[in-house]
Amino acid sequence: MKKILTAVAIALAIGGLTVAHAATTAPSGKAKYAIIFKNTGNPYGEKEMAGFKKAADEVGAEAILKAPDQPTAEAQIQMIGELIAQKVAVIAMVGNDPDALEPALKKAMKAGIKVLSLDSGVNPASRMVHINQADPERIGRVQVQAIAEMIGGSGEIAVLSATSQATNQNLWIEWMKKELAENPKMKNIKLVKVAYGDDLRDKSVAEMEGLLKTYPNLKGVIAPTTVALQPPLVSQPRARC
After folding, report:
1. CATH assignment of 2-131?
2. Tens of each residue's pLDDT in the chain, 241 residues
3. Number of C-beta neighbours around residue 43 at 10 A
4. Which helix (H) or strand (E) holds 185?
5. Residue range(s) of every CATH 3.40.50.2300 domain in the chain
6. What CATH superfamily classification does 136-240 receive?
7. Using an 8 Å Cβ cutoff, are 116 and 15 in contact?
């Protein structure tokens, strides 16, 4: 997370986003920097927004922290419109959909707002820069290596991810599949399902219960999302990663 804070602060500075941005200042005289996370109630998102506020404070800006109740592009589009009306200087986007947000974010950039994405990115036409929190290849490969060790090198595994449009996690999953296909040590491991809990606790629980019923021989689950790490997932005696 410390790397994310530094990267965001650098991105803001490189973009020339200073308190001298007269058209986008708050009554306090500070420029307004906004972040929109995927949804509320996500522990990782709460840390990420706290980090964004710290970075904004460091460059003398006022931070606006926003997240919809549900992890949908429609909810984020509405928030983007609100921020355009508020004439913020910056929108940092953790996207629920890489393409659906494009018209709204283009409108923001046309209005002079600096747009960047982080964590779960948007397409290049929708932002000026993207901040990646870690190397996707290492994340994907290491998670498979970890689950392989946990299940003794053989058996069925599944992935319980966030939303099917989450660019970061989908890229991790691509690398998981490559690791399974390329590493000879993985020849006895079978990926039976990639399930999506849509960053919702109840749906994640339901998807996990479905995996256990559908695949009675399931030995391990990779859950690269904090929302998926909820009971009953964490209470099952099978391997988690």
Report:
1. 3.40.50.2300
2. 444 444 554 455 444 444 334 345 555 678 999 999 999 988 889 999 999 999 999 999 999 999 999 889 999 999 999 999 999 999 999 999 989 999 999 999 999 999 999 988 899 999 999 998 788 999 999 999 999 999 999 999 999 998 888 888 899 999 999 999 999 999 999 999 999 998 888 888 999 999 999 999 999 999 987 665 655 444 444 555 5
3. 10
4. none
5. 2-131, 136-240
6. Response regulator (3.40.50.2300)
7. yes
